[in-house]
Design goal:
Chain lengths: 260, 356
């Protein structure tokens, strides 16, 4: 029987809950696969045998996380990162390139010594090799089911990294960017079905970068829509984790402007 | 069908509701409705929701001929037996503007000219197209593309607003039959109606700001000649590559497909869905090579296909001047402006000065 594992590292466990929400699919799966490791949902879990597919949620932030994910990689034929924490580092990684670990710890806990050893939050792919990534905050149920049915049948799942605008426009939602609402749709990886924009909320970029995002123009548009340059950069970096490193406040350009 | 003015009829505006109700008996009635500030084509239950004086819908009526996501077939993974649940239902699309009728005519050429697509043909046979006259806004340039008025023979009826009445021209025998079957709503045309109808085309023309319209004369040559122009790079700097321009285009038809296995692995469904030449993966081939590696090359590709590719393929421009790509672009890139820049006439005043 196919052995599946679902593991949580540092995160909110929302993605694992989202998997539990795929009731119809889980009912169909129960007779065909063995959930050998799924501590969030069951009592008896084993880590002794090899896994066919291991889903990992959460960022690698503690020493324990790192040990767990290294072992998971060793034991799994296919390792899939699910959710934006596992794929990019998640919201907890948004200040990674702005503050030191000491500064972060002091701000949050008031001290640098904790009962466990922590590092800056990292994406799973920054620690071990990842076969597939299913981003999103939380992971999209339909994408999860599609990925599972593809992997179980030996088919490579196909996730084109196109912008959220694709799904938003095809559902005939009025363009929020043109309406003046800050929206990250044009630079964010689609697959969610654009649920936020259809409710009038600008895309928050939870699924990370689409292929070759045009951040320069995006920053310009966000500023036209009322954000300061600093806020626009911070807005784009909320969910992108390590992918957000290239987005920076353009100090050099500003200096030139002053000089001119 | 040839144009027979003696067959044209007049539909008094107070009879429109009854006419729309009558259309519902022929199949699924589809018409523009309002959603917040925008319009879209939807299946109509309550005919009072139909918008008669809309500017443009977000998506063209194309979505009812070629759905954006469609299941081609399902096959058994072991026996490879194919099955399809496709079935074309009768539908009436009401309230299509002239540009979109031309858009459908282009799709007809693409899908039916050589190697007709049996599905498209089936859907088209069961679809009645009823057009309506419109007023242009600042994004419209159908005067330049020659699509401001319906011609050809791909539509069934066309309603031109002549004040208190609609002047109804008939484009097909199907249209003729519809009028015959619902003749209680129509009346014969009078000389006065005919006069108003004749004036309606010059009235529409008068609503355009001719200074603003792009010159599309010899556009295929211009695009070819300007293939290496720096204008492409300049414009593509702003392009987000979001694909909105192609997704809202009434003539774009590119799609991709993938096989989706069922969880139990017994069946596989082949799903087709719309894609865009503005997405990098569109030109990605095995081995990781991109045929269109830069944003500028993808940006140029769209113009090249619309103004060079289509004329070569179907002897018509691939653009009908509906203005959707410019009106919906989040980066506010305008097709009119790009064409003007390419022709070197972005700043008309400057040019006149040079001439002087």
């Amino acid at each position: 029987m196919v052995k599946i594992g679902i593991m949580g590292l540092t995160g909110c466990s929302g993605c694992q809950c989202e998997i539990l929400n795929c009731q119809d699919a889980l009912m169909k799966l129960i007779g065909k696969v063995e959930f050998a490791y799924f501590p969030l949902a069951q009592d008896n879990n084993t880590f002794d045998e090899e896994f066919d597919v291991m889903f990992v949620e959460g960022s690698v932030t503690t020493e324990e996380d790192e040990a767990k994910v290294l072992k998971a990689r060793e034991k799994s034929k296919i390792l899939v990162a699910i959710g934006s924490c596992a794929c990019y580092g998640g919201v907890q990684a948004q200040k990674n390139d702005e503050a030191s670990l000491e500064e972060m710890l002091k701000t949050v806990y008031g001290k640098t010594e904790l009962f466990l050893k922590v590092s800056k939050p990292r994406a799973v792919s920054e620690v071990v090799e990842v076969d597939y990534e299913l981003p999103g905050c939380p992971v999209d149920k339909r994408q999860f089911v599609y990925a599972v049915s593809s992997l179980l049948n030996g088919v490579k799942p196909f996730f084109p990294k196109i912008p959220v605008c694709h799904e938003c426009k095809l559902s005939e939602t009025e363009c929020l960017t043109l309406k003046g609402i800050p929206c990250q749709g044009p630079v964010t990886y689609a697959g969610c079905g654009a649920p936020c924009t259809s409710q009038g909320v600008g895309c928050q970029g939870c699924r990370g970068n689409c292929d070759f995002p045009n951040f320069k123009e995006m920053l310009k548009i966000l500023q036209e829509n009322g954000l300061s340059e600093k806020d626009a950069v911070a807005f784009l970096k909320v969910f992108r984790g390590y992918q957000g490193r290239e987005i920076k406040v353009n100090d050099e350009e500003r200096r030139n402007e002053k000089g001119a | 069908m040839e144009f027979h003015i003696d067959k044209a009829r007049v539909l008094p505006k107070e009879n429109l509701r009854g006419f729309l109700e009558g259309l519902k008996n022929l199949g699924k009635l589809i018409a523009p409705v309002k959603k917040q500030e925008k319009f879209y084509f939807d299946v109509i239950g309550d005919v009072s929701k139909v918008e008669l004086s809309y500017t443009r819908t977000i998506l063209p009526p194309k979505k009812f001929l070629v759905p954006y996501r469609r299941e081609r077939y399902t096959y058994d993974a072991e026996t490879l037996d194919f099955s399809s649940s496709f079935k074309a239902e009768p539908q009436i699309i009401f309230g299509i503007h002239s540009c979109d009728l031309h858009g459908i005519s282009i799709l007809d050429s693409v899908y039916l000219k050589e190697n007709p697509d049996p599905r498209y043909l089936e859907v088209r046979k069961k679809t009645v197209l009823i057009g309506i006259s419109c007023k242009p806004d600042e994004y419209c340039f159908c005067m330049s593309t020659g699509t401001a008025f319906p011609d050809g023979a791909n539509w069934d009826l066309f309603l031109t607003d002549i004040g208190d009445n609609y002047f109804v021209t008939i484009g097909s025998t199907k249209g003729d039959e519809i009028i015959l079957n619902m003749k209680e709503f129509f009346r014969e045309i009078t000389d006065e109606d005919l006069d108003l109808y004749k004036k309606s085309s010059s009235f529409k023309k008068s609503l355009f700001d001719f200074k603003n319209l792009p010159d599309l004369g010899r556009i295929s040559q211009v695009i070819e000649l300007e293939y290496d122009s720096p204008v492409w790079e300049e414009e593509a700097e702003r392009c987000l590559g979001c694909g909105t321009c192609t997704n809202v285009c009434p003539t774009c038809f590119c799609y991709t497909e993938m096989d989706v296995p069922s969880l139990d692995g017994k069946t596989v469904t082949r799903v087709e869905f719309t894609t865009s030449c503005q997405y990098p993966y569109y030109s990605l081939v095995a081995g990781g090579h991109y045929f269109k590696p830069t944003r500028a090359s993808r940006f140029k590709h769209r113009y090249y296909h619309k103004f060079v590719g289509y004329p070569y393929q179907i002897e018509k421009l691939g653009c009908v001047g509906c203005g959707r790509c410019s009106a919906e672009c989040p980066a506010k890139i305008s097709m009119i402006e790009t064409i003007k820049k390419l022709r070197g006439t972005a700043d008309e005043e400057e040019l006149r000065k040079v001439a002087e």
